[in-house]
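step: validate -> pass
step: tokenize input -> pass
step: predict -> running
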Amino acid sequence: PHNSQKLFTASGSNTIYYTKNSGENWSAIPVELGESKLIKIRVSKADSNIVWAASESQYINFSTDGGETFTKINQPDGTPNARLTGMETHPHDSASALIMFGIYGYGKIYRTEDFGSSWKDITNNLPDVPVHCALIMPYNTNEIWIGTDIGIFISTDSGQNWSYSENGLPAVSVRRLKIVDQEIIAVTHGRGIWSM
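step: predict -> pass
step: emit ->
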């Protein structure tokens, strides 16, 4: 977010590629990601030196040097065989992030405030459906929006309580949330792209 010429991508297992010149040259970085082909990469909104990388098979890594090297961290307790579906960074606190899981019967959304040394389950009163994405509001970081298999849920108390969002969006799987100017964009699975 602070350097538009630096990009990250993943190709195959255990390798992340980055460019510092908008794709003219790429460098490979070995990262422990398991056998999963679905990789999530998030650059911290608060500090571009912090880069998170995780795989669907729950290998979670972070970098403090802008993605030059990565350190593997532990997955949260209580997420056996859970499919990691999403990550979100805090807009102001570089040590804080959220990870989401697509699993029934266990926690769906976890927060760290210490670069993944510890995790707190903030699923609380959410229904037992997969969570795919999250958005921490930059104007009030106690407000979190999440996309689930049945629509959007919102917390105004940092994940202690969740309410279903009655905003006209159908009860559809929401796979990505993003702020663009003054709108929130929701990307769904099968019902198009919506803005609020």
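step: describe -> Residues 6 and 20 are 4 Å apart (CA to CA).
step: cleanup -> pass
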